[in-house]
Structure formats: structure tokens, C-alpha cells
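W.,

You were right to be curious about this one. When I first looked at the sequence I had no strong expectations either way, so I just let the prediction run and decided to look at it fresh. Below is the sequence, 257 residues in total, followed by the output.
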Amino acid sequence: MNVLEHHSSPKIEISLIGNIPDTVADELPPLVDIDEYNSFKTDKRRAEHVSARFALCSILENWGLDVEQVKIVRDNNRAPSLQWLEGLYRSEPLPGISLGHSNGNAVAAVIEPGWWVGIDAEPDDRKIAANALDQFCKGEELVMLSGRSDEAVKLWTSKEAVQKSMHLGMNLNPRDITFDNSIPIEEVIHQLSIGNTNIKLKNTLHNGFQIAVAWRLAGEPVPRAEDELLDAARDLMRNEAGEFDFSIGCATTRENH
């Protein structure tokens, strides 16, 4: 299993592997959510899920992180991130992550803490039907791509990587993501803005796969259950003026102290 350096500052590493055979529950790798795993109806989907987590674990372990101490959580847009397991009470920031799968392969990306990353990979020779181009392109871009349909997969993976880096998925319309040079050039870092967010993108051709990686400064993390409990406790300790009153919640208070 290869872990490849994709970028040095911020540090980004990626891993692309073939799907591994489906396994029984007690042999599942760390970071697999057993409830999510059991919800899949096909062996193919289970294999994709497990393989992406194998790829992710290979990078995290390469970074010296104990994968038995973290879990994957998802926000309201299903974007994944890492959290420390409840009960560890650790506050060190964790790397950003992104996962994907295509054509019997799984892909993962990890970026240093403080950043969000998005990755997508497709076979370089994959053909996208002409009547499907308007699902992710419009206007001049659609006209341009109609004459360069062999490069459609590069544009598609680039847009999906950007969607993932924004933690928005399909809530960010791919037709609204455009690049200054129409088709991102491989091994060149491209910059774009969505609202007030600056995003960088880099495409790589590796082992016959077109891989796109996008990254940006991290946004708000998914709240931890422990943090929500502490916040609720703090709210209960405020008086009517909104100030902390440390006598609240105590059974008795001592006079003259």
C-alpha cells in the first residue's frame, strides 16, 4: 500500500488502493462504523467502505497517529472528519481527511491540522457521455468541453474535490465551480475562490487514475459530545445577567467565605 506525498505545505498525503475483499465484522479495520457498514446492501459497497478506511489508516499510522483512539464523524452534509474518542479528553487538533472510491479502487487524503481537504479519483480513460456534461458544466465551459470530451474526467474530479474541500458535497452546485484556465493543468497548483473562501487545487495522473486534491483553511469542526455537555453545564451556571455564578448548582453555600 503506497502513501504518496501530494503537497508539502500544508502537508498532504494520499493513498490509492484496490478494493480489498469483504471481511467479517470482527476483522474490520479501525475507523469502520459497524452500524454504517451493516447498513450497506451489497458486498461491493461494503468493500468500498472498508477499503477507503484501510487507505486512510495507512496514512494516519504513517503520521504516528494511533487510529484506535480516533473515530470518523460526519457533519450535516456528510463531510467526514476525525474526532478523539469520548473519554480520552484530548484536545490536540487532528488532521483533515477526505475519502472516495471509484472503479474498484479506494482513495484517501490527509492534510495537516487547521486545513480541510477534498479528494476524488477516476480512471483517466473513463468516458463521460456528452448528454451528461451539463450535469456539472454550463455556459462557455459546456461549449468548450463539448470539443474536449476526453478531458471531461479531469474537470469532473477537480470539481468534486472542491466540493469535498468545502464540506458541502452536492450542496455546492458543480456547475457553479469554474477555473480560470478551463481545464486544470496537471501538477500545477490552481487557485479559486468561492464566496470568501480561497481554495487550492492540484491534479495528478497516477497509475492510470486522474486524481484531484483541493484544500482550504478549516471551518468550524463538528461539535464533540463532551464539548456539548460542557457547554450545557456552563449555561446552567449563568445567572439572569448571563454572568457565571459558581454558587449555582451547589447544594449549599458557606457564609462569610
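Here's what jumped out at me. The chain has one domain: 4-217. And, maybe more interesting for your project: The two ends are 64 Å apart (CA to CA).

Coffee later to discuss?

I.
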